[in-house]
Amino acid sequence: MIGALELRDARVMVTGSGGxxxxxxxxxxxxRGAKPxxxxxxxxxxxxxAQVMAALRDLQPSYILHAAAVVGGIGANREHxxxxxxxxxxxxxxxxxxxxxxxxEKVVVVGTVxxxxxxxxxxxxxxxxxxxxxxxxxxxxxxxxKMLLVQAQAYRAEYGFxxxxxxxxxxYGPGDNFDLHTSHVIPAMIRKCFEAxxxxxxxxxxxxxxxxxxxxxxxxxAAEGIVSALERYESPxxxxxxxxxxxxxxxLAHVLAEATGYKxxxxxxxxxxxxxxxxxxxxxxxxxxxxxxxxxxxxxGIARTVDWYEQQISETIQPLS
Length: 321
What we know:
By secondary structure, the protein is of the alpha/beta class. Helix content is 43%, strand content 16%. The chain contains ten helices and eleven strands. It has helices spanning 20-31, 49-59, 74-79, 81-101, 139-159, 185-198, 219-232, 249-260, 284-290, 298-316; strands at residues 11-15, 35-39, 63-66, 106-110, 163-168, 170-172, 203-207, 213-218, 239-241, 246-248, 265-269. The strands form three sheets. The chain has a six-stranded parallel β-sheet with strand order 2-1-3-4-5-9, sandwiched between helices. The chain has a three-stranded mixed β-sheet with strand order 6-8-10. α8 packs across α10. It starts with 10 loop residues before the first strand and ends in a 5-residue tail after the last helix. The mean pLDDT is 94.
């Protein structure tokens, strides 16, 4: 572990600041006394180089956390592979290049566990990231994000540009995306369980066989790791952030049913893709380099997420007149 950057009063630009992870990053920076500089898609279109340049000119950041991304579950990745590749690649390429030109002191890029090869040995180690092609359904997204690791390392080698690249595993928590067309598995299943219960249904349809495994990381734990990487991580090598809890999708469904009070059964649609067979990462480098350890267990994190979603539902119900 090395000495940390002093972030008090530091100007830190956060791309994707209005999103799920971005909001948590802003909160972690505020806790440290930094001055977060929010960048939302409504303010600047980061796929447009001129608008990236304008954001840097307007905000004058010393540091950047690049959390902006076009993301979604398996269905969204299958429907929009071109958009997911182009938008994620172009945003990152423009941002890193123009940050170098503008003499930004350091950038942290938030990568994706989808960049790892489809059959990476579990737990995934950072040195395995180039040992094969990603799982096909999310390969365009994963490869677009992985090219930013290449760019970060190339710019460090040629220009001395300081850029850290972190790879969080699947994120979840309060404030997640619960849109069934674009959401990931935990928010999608929470919503389906609540809707089935409220509508008196005794079945919830789930994609795939339920056999694949995933590792989930609570969003605030991920944000703490990312900000810690800004403060402490100086290596050109990628850095995994994970919880250490691997669970099958089938077992996850039962945990979510218990948390939501759903009493029915799950119907597994094996004609739909499973995605990557297993996904769990080795976070020992983050523990060693940052002193970072996730604090929220999967069971506790799901309970918090369910409570948050239930509160959102109750606030949308109009009282009878």
